[in-house]
Amino acid sequence: MKTIKELLAMKEQTEKISMITAYDYPSAKQAEAAQIDTILVGDSLGMVVLGYDSTVEVTMDDMIHHAKAVRRGAPNTFVVVDVPFGAIGIDDATDIKNAIDLYKETKGNAIKIEGMHTNLIERCTQIGVPVVSHLGLTPQSVGITGYKLQASSKEDAEQLIKQAQEVEAAGAVMLVLEAIPSDLAEVISEKLTIPVIGIGAGKGTDGQVLVYHDLLNYGSEHVAKFVKQYGDFSTGVDALNNYHKEVKSGAFPSEEFTYKKKVMGETGK
Ligand code: KIV
Ligand code: NA
């Protein structure tokens, strides 16, 4: 398993860091077998696995349930677990309790927090909970921002640089930047010591993250401009339909798939 120190060293040696989301045991096993550096149990879970309309509906219980399965599937990969909407931003005691619970119950290697929660990042860091920060497009705030390119003016870009420096100063161990101009992502990656992982942020970051279901065309409905599809799990529909037809026709199960031991004696058919 990669440690935070090793991820930092990868940035220093300009070795790119790969990250993929996973939400269950088999996807985590695949990610680990594929030698991907880090796994994110994203709250994108809500949309790609649970069929919610946005990440806003995802609960602590959802995240814990799925992250535990991911941990079992990928015991030797660095796992980051998303803090869901509504678990923080309440009051200091509640926020820190939820952060600790998520870290402790899932046995993740870090939690990820969207937005400028610098006090919470500091507090988590103090007590030993590693935090990955997520800035730029933060889907939990989609009710305010919409799904669109963020920091697209000079002024907003400069603010994002400041914010990135602030989360680093607060103790964040990594930063995810989503849907921002690539030149800005490159500047932020250069300015920060911690690894910066991009999604829709161009090639200048220290690593890349994509959503498992997007990358594999597995039931994802609309796919953003920045998604490259490396596989096509939609062919699973054809396989399921062939099974359906063979059940109807009786072609399945053929002898090959049948236990032929006779136990019914003379009267048996
Ligand atoms: O939930 C998620 O999948 C994420 C990534 C897109 C960064 O936060
Ligand atoms: Na997320």
From TrEMBL:
This is 3-methyl-2-oxobutanoate hydroxymethyltransferase. Mg(2+) binds at D43, D82, E114. Belongs to the PanB family. It comes from the Bacteria. 3-methyl-2-oxobutanoate binds at D43, S44, D82, K112. One of its GO terms (molecular function) is magnesium ion binding. HAMAP family: PanB (MF_00156). Its EC number is 2.1.2.11. Keywords: Cytoplasm, Magnesium, Metal-binding, Pantothenate biosynthesis, Transferase. Homodecamer; pentamer of dimers. Its main location: cytoplasm. Binds 1 Mg(2+) ion per subunit. GO terms for biological process: pantothenate biosynthetic process. It catalyses: (6R)-5,10-methylene-5,6,7,8-tetrahydrofolate + 3-methyl-2-oxobutanoate + H2O = 2-dehydropantoate + (6S)-5,6,7,8-tetrahydrofolate. GO terms for cellular component: cytoplasm. The active site is at E178 (proton acceptor). Pathway: Cofactor biosynthesis; (R)-pantothenate biosynthesis; (R)-pantoate from 3-methyl-2-oxobutanoate: step 1/2. Catalyzes the reversible reaction in which hydroxymethyl group from 5,10-methylenetetrahydrofolate is transferred onto alpha-ketoisovalerate to form ketopantoate. It is found in: Cytoplasm. It comes from Mammaliicoccus lentus (Staphylococcus lentus). Its cofactor is Mg(2+).
